[in-house]
Amino acid sequence: MRGSGNEIFCLPLALVVLLGLNVRDVLGGLPSNDDIPYCNCKRKCHGEKKRFEIIISHPLSWQDALIYCKERRMELATIRNSQEHDKILEELKRAGMENGEKSRMFWIGGTKLHSNRGFFWMSEGDQVQYTNWLRGQPDDYAGSQKCMTYQHGWMDDIRWAWDDNYCSSALSFACEYC
User: What is the pLDDT of residues 36-86, one digit of tens each?
Assistant: First the structure.
């Protein structure tokens, strides 16, 4: 089942305000003429049921990626344990990205925008407990890196792990669904 592209589901008004969006613009939706599944699923997807979709053909800012996923009843990906990290690595292999081909980084759903308590998952507001930061990260370079990415390597650390980045950067991104 696919949405019409003219609705955003489960996007609380507080989120719209936090992102500094115009409610009328949000309700207008985003284009939906793509191959991304429209997810008609329950929230709080964990464990074996959780699936990831990595979108590399449509780079967006972190905020726009969040809306893109939510418009399709998905969430910007959360990685809450090593099993979910392994699962997203499987999706990277399936997409031909395991060695950083096609895209070296993509957005996930962690942020510390307007937060004094550190990084939290935007999907549910839970503080990030499990971490997988690249060596030396997060560094909040210039006091402006507030959104989380998965990145293939940094300096001598050549694995897929997390980095903080400028939220306005246009990057690939990962959505999660059940």
Answer: 444 444 456 666 789 999 998 899 999 999 999 999 999 999 999 999 999
Which of 34, 52, 58 minimizes the C-alpha distance to 109?
A: 52
Instruction: Work out whether strand 171-177 and strand 157-165 pair parallel, antiparallel, or are unpaired.
Output: unpaired
Q: What residue ranges do the domains of the chain occupy? A: 13-177
Number of helices followed by number of strands (H, E) in the chain: 4, 7
Answer yes or no: are the C-beta atoms of 135 and 125 closer than 8 Å.
Answer: no
- pTM passes above 0.85: no
Between CA 72 and CA 8 the distance in angstroms is 7
SS3 assignment for 119-159: CEECCCCCECCCCCECCCCCCCHHHCCCEEEEEEEECCEEE
Q: Rounded to whole angstroms, how far apart are CA atoms 164 and 134?
A: 10
CB 175 within 8 A of CB 69: yes
Q: Would you say 175 and 77 are in contact if contact means Cβ atoms under 8 Å apart?
A: yes
Residue with tokens 């996923």: 69
13-177: CATH number: 3.10.100.10
3-state SS assignment for residue 110: strand
Separation between Cα atoms, residue 79 and residue 82, nearest integer Å: 8
Tell me the residue length of the chain: 178
